[in-house]
Design a protein that fits this description.
Radius of gyration: 15 Å
Order of helices and strands: HHHHHHH
Shape: globular
Distance between the termini: 21 Å
Largest sheet: none
Length: 135
């Protein structure tokens, strides 16, 4: 699958909740519910875990109250990295950095957990790279 970047810099193609991933193996929904709770402190029932991605037209979203998506769309941008107000307060609440999560949980993070629960959402480096490249 080609990389699919969200408005805030997450990667749909790597996310287990993304429709193509969640529907190919429904068992990943429970795994994701548990992983999100462990690393981010929130839990969604597995049956509610499926997302079309915020780049889709009229998408089913995990976070229906996301303030970033409508802001980026209203500004006519593809992602937050293109915004002159980068990184605004809306985005700061959505920034994911591996080192910060590791520090918060106070333990090493197994590679599989990193790939499933953190890597898809590590947006700070992605957005900064996009800003540096002018994309």
């Amino acid at each position: 699958m080609e990389p699919i970047l969200t408005r805030c810099g997450y990667r749909c193609d790597l996310c287990l909740a993304y429709k193509a991933n969640a529907e190919s193996d429904p068992a990943v929904r429970q795994k994701l519910s548990d992983g999100w709770f462990k690393y981010f402190g929130f839990r969604l029932p597995p049956e509610q875990i499926v997302c079309d991605g915020c780049m889709a037209e009229n998408p089913r979203l995990i976070d229906k109250g996301c303030p970033v998506r409508p802001c980026v769309i209203a500004k006519g941008l593809d992602h937050c990295g293109q915004c002159q107000q980068y990184a605004c307060e809306k985005l700061k609440k959505r920034i994911v950095v591996y080192e910060g999560i590791k520090q918060r949980v106070g333990a090493d993070i197994p590679e599989d957990d990193y790939l499933c629960f953190i890597r898809p959402y590590e947006n700070k480096r992605r957005l900064e790279a996009l800003r540096a490249s002018g994309e």
